Amino acid sequence: MNSLYIAGEWLAGQGEAFQSLNPVTQQVLWEGAGATTAQVESAVQAARQAFPGWARRTLDERIAVLEAFAAALKNHADELARTIGEETGKPLWEATTEVTSMVNKIAISVQSYRERTGEKSGPLGDATAVLRHKPHGVVAVFGPYNFPGHLPNGHIVPALLAGNSVLFKPSELTPKVAELTVKCWIEAGLPAGVLNLLQGARETGIALAANPGIDGLFFTGSSRTGNHLHQQFAGRPDKILALEMGGNNPLVVDEVADLDAAVYTIIQSAFISAGQRCTCARRLLVPQGAWGDTLLARLVAVSGAIEVGAFDQQPAPFMGSVISLGAAKALMEAQEHLLANGAVALLEMTQPQAQAALLTPGILDVTAVADRPDEELFGPLLQVIRYADFEAAIAEANDTDYGLAAGLLSDSEARYQQFWLESRAGIVNWNKQLTGAASSAPFGGVGASGNHRASAYYAADYCAYPVASLETPSLTLPATLTPGVKMA
Ligand SMILES: NC(=O)C1=CN([C@@H]2O[C@H](COP(=O)(O)OP(=O)(O)OC[C@H]3O[C@@H](n4cnc5c(N)ncnc54)[C@H](O)[C@@H]3O)[C@@H](O)[C@H]2O)C=CC1
Ligand SMILES: O=C(O)CCC(=O)N[C@@H](CCC(=O)O)C(=O)O
């Protein structure tokens, strides 16, 4: 099967063969082989060749191709949503919102490009000072599996808009969504070589990241891989690296009047996408005492009744599966490890069928666990920590190397102000779920969550570099010369 798209041609990968599976039925959805180092090199050459022509197109011409891509996405919306659901396990209603986010990314990227990286000019002395932006050249985009359409799209669209050519290395767990997305770009009339698809697993990623012909790498994925890439790019100030990584996100609950609203917001924060969003609440900080006990009892009751099912189950479930049987196993083991170290199961996460990656929501009280691991458990497992007072809650919230998202549920504005000032994260919310960040806002974290290259609305910033020019159409001698220079 032709799994790679290089220089406008579909080609068979010559690397390791792999498949993608429906995580619930284990049905094979896609089969192909990854790109070898030599194939990565030929894709980089193709992107290098295509770059000048694409960069020299006018902005309006590039926008026209992007708009044709949005139209292609709309034409294939049902097929794309179904493929996202099948390959990731997320329910169809959610996969449909992912396709909508992909379509909306076009207009938002154009707006952001004009606002943040557009052109400005004004008089400066006897010249005109002009600010323009240029693309970096050839950039690699690495995608994660949890939003196989929307998140790579969040790098690819602004990168192409700015005039870069792109090498797209999707997650090896979601190759079919990537292939469909690239077909939509082809339908949109993107010239050959401007976007190349390099399917494959880690080896393909390593070969691409190490290729000297790339000018930058835009990555969304785990902190472990992101850290590795950061080390690899050390001493290469000539290459731009944008890292969007995970989080160990805290959600602090204060004693609020509307307990059910708190429970609903916690569920939307912790269990949407089966907990497979980088913004999901991982740690729930609950006050000690009777009110906190009541909140947890209600949370456990409502979470225990959450519908979990296959992506196309009717009536629709709230949660689908996690990405694979391997991921389900790792999460079950992580739960066992916490339980063995003093955690108390308020609601134990279960895997009802051994051959399906469906997990039910889990809630563990980990207050008594000594040396709680500061790691992101990427699934529907929420860890509860009871706190004595608000200062202790903030200290606990900040007790992480990550810094992606943090939230407070509280009726007190003063407490929110304190929380906002003292919490260290790129997203800080008040009485709103942690998940569902807007594409019209910057999106990125601090600490181990990112390298200060926020994505979404600010992706324009890392897709182009500023060029400041002083310009005047004719060269004239200044009326007053610098002391010590004689022109006579
Ligand atoms: N902050 C953000 O915007 C987001 C972060 N994430 C994070 O992504 C993770 C889940 O996604 P995964 O696909 O598991 O991430 P991952 O890090 O395993 O893989 C991401 C990509 O890197 C490639 N890769 C893996 N090892 C590599 C290496 N040594 N060199 C080069 N490439 C390599 C993979 O093949 C894949 O294309 C979670 O930790 C989640 O928090 C997910 C979505 C958004
Ligand atoms: O990238 C954007 O356009 C906005 C950010 C976004 O969509 N965030 C989602 C996905 C989180 C994840 O990356 O897993 C969210 O906050 O739910």
What does this structure look like?
With 488 residues, this protein is α/β, with parallel strands linked by helices. The protein has two domains: 4-245 and 450-471, Aldehyde Dehydrogenase, Chain A, domain 1, CATH 3.40.605; 250-430, Aldehyde Dehydrogenase, Chain A, domain 2. The protein has 14 helices and 21 strands. It has helices at 37-56, 59-75, 77-88, 92-117, 150-162, 175-187, 202-210, 223-232, 259-270, 290-304, 325-340, 390-397, 413-422, 459-463, and strands spanning 2-6, 9-12, 17-21, 28-33, 120-124, 127-135, 138-142, 165-169, 195-197, 216-220, 240-244, 249-253, 281-287, 344-347, 362-365, 381-387, 405-409, 427-430, 442-443, 455-456, 464-471. Helix 2 packs antiparallel against helix 4, helix 3 packs antiparallel against helix 6 (175-187) and helix 9 (259-270) packs across helix 10 (290-304). The longest helix has 26 residues, at 92-117. It starts with a strand and ends in a 17-residue tail after the last strand. The protein binds 1,4-dihydronicotinamide adenine dinucleotide (NAI) and the ligand O=C(O)CCC(=O)N[C@@H](CCC(=O)O)C(=O)O. Residues 146-147, 151, 154, 277-279, 435-437, 439, 443, 455-456 line the site of ligand LFNQLBSZ. The active site is at residues 244, 278. One of its GO terms (molecular function) is succinylglutamate-semialdehyde dehydrogenase activity. It comes from Pseudomonas silesiensis. Belongs to the aldehyde dehydrogenase family. AstD subfamily.
